[in-house]
Amino acid sequence: MQNLIRKILVAVDFSDKSNNAVKMAVHIAARHKAKIILLHNITNHAIIDRTGKQIIGAETINENFLKTQRALKELEISLKAQYPVLEIQSVIKNDRLIHGINEVIDFETVDLVICGSSGHQNFSQLILGSLSYQILTEANCSVLLVPEDCKKYSFDKILVPIRVLEDLTNKIDLSVAIAKRNNGVISLLGISTDEDLIKIKDAYQRARTTIAIKSQEYHSQFLLTRDKATQISKFSEEDDADIIILNYQDEDSWKSFFSENFFKQIINYTDVPLLFLKNKSVKTKNYSEDNVGFDITLPHPG
Length: 302
Hints:
By secondary structure, this protein is α/β, with parallel strands linked by helices. It has 2 domains: 158 residues, Rossmann fold (3-Layer(aba) Sandwich); 116 residues, Rossmann fold. 39% of the residues lie in helices and 25% in strands. The strands form 2 sheets. An 11-stranded mixed sheet has the order 10-9-8-11-12-7-6-1-2-5-13, with helices on both faces. Helix 6 packs parallel to helix 7 and helix 8 runs parallel beside helix 9. It is globular.
């Protein structure tokens, strides 16, 4: 069976939600025999005066780097003790977080980024954008958001909504691969508005056929609604889903900055891991190089 998850990058900041994301990553990596890259980013603070940009607190940055280096090494050693066959690498970046993540994605050909999510966003996060939401929208590969309170790390029940047509074949292939690695069951949910009913129903039937041909256990249902995010969340709760696999396609992107688009709704209203499939050929915008720093790849322990 083709392994569609070969390299996993985990954004690490040593918080509880980050630690939970790491735990999820090692379980997935063990099942898929994937490499794990632990990435921590140190952000510079600077002022600009007549002489140009001046980094504030260089000594503090160096101190933070040494602390981070030790903490990552301890984390590696702990993980290797539990999972001795796993390949684990640590990277420290001194850059804008998303820029640093995308550099590692491109250089290492990462298949999946995993980051912790607090779930419900407060109002300021809705305006400014939480880090998990920023990673979701700007990382150059698929992203798995892991809620801080998620304590199940296997995917016995895999909810796969069919709501848009983009990358449908890749989405079904990934869903089947995950289901087989977990001995899980796919719950296929066709979900559409009246306007898109014909094309979504056709895609839904094709997905059912593909899953059956691949000899994967599944069950299916079709819903007609305009409130897709809420209905997917409700269905995931009723179905006791362990993960939801979604296309990276925001059908509500036209909404205003203060409105909840599909992504924000599904993050806010769902308390299970969300995997957003993103085509690697679709790159986000390039970020400026005004925060040029360093990156250090730490050697494997032992």
